[in-house]
Amino acid sequence: MSIPQTIEFDTRKAKRFHIVCFDLETSGLDLDDHEVIQIGAIKVNESLNRHVIKSFEMKVRMENPERASPSALKVNRYDLEVWAKEAVSKQEAAIAFAEWIVDGSDHVKFAGHNLAGFDWPRICRMFERADTKIMQVRRPRKNQEPEGEDDKGEFIKQAMIPGSGYHSLLDTGPMAAMLQLAVGQQELGSLSLRPLARYCGFIHDDDQAHEALYDCMTT
Coiled-coil regions in this chain (predicted)? Predict the structure, then answer.
């Protein structure tokens, strides 16, 4: 049985604002049956000056490999020998990712391609199953009742992950949809990351696509 873990950081005097762009590879597309098998992430300044402050990559061990989709594992370059050597448990991955997010940052926003529809619900589900939370300590907004306040009523503790209602999500998926409307489907192709990157002039190597860290670097 996993031990519940809570990692929190205080945004009340935030000075270091960062964007965490992350990408997940999974054992299939079903939220309930399939699992996260790889996490890739980079942290950049909120000014988006392209300077990568640090990166994160971790392979995650499947708890139910019999449920995995063979086609998904093939697309995501799953190698049984590599995962046997490098993968960690779901809780180890959740704790390591949470600590990486918090380290060196006072406030973060999350970014990704199709983040709201795919990666965000899956990272929240993984954290839930791993009994791990990232809690944000922040000042209450005007006319907002504090929850978990101190003696002076100065703070709110709000779950960032898991927490499907977290507001600071930057998703390039809807941007791709708007671009497709503007230039036409024939010009852009699908709304996936590869054609979007190529249209915008970025190299997205087919031989590295669906590697979590490579995809979030492209995003």
Answer: none
